[in-house]
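Lab channel / #folding
Pinned by the channel admin:
"Please post every new chain as: sequence first, then the structure tokens as a reply. Keep commentary short and put observations after the output so the thread stays searchable."

First post following the new format, from NK:
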Amino acid sequence: MAYLYESEIEEMAIEELQALGYTYISGNDLTPDTAPLERKSFADVILRDRCLSALRRINPHLSDGAIESALKALYQRLQPIISIMLLIKLLPVQFMQRIKTVIKKLE
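Reply from TO:
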């Protein structure tokens, strides 16, 4: 069975988003110690100022309060996904292989 590496999936996603007109900025350019400061730590997956700017651009008719509410809702919906992604990155490879084995047995 062929497997895709995380880097391959990431590269495909980046290329697809660039084809849609998005600009790619390397994570190395968005570190907590790089100016301009866009995140306080690597745990800040959503870049707050960029997201607020995009929400305002997409929804010019909404008030600042509504935009803040939308951002809060976005955080709440993405938090479980972000937590799982961070947890997976922290799990030892052997444990992940055991999980894959269990999943295959369940299929």
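NK: Residues 64-90 form the longest helix (27 residues).
TO: also worth noting, The mean pLDDT is 80.
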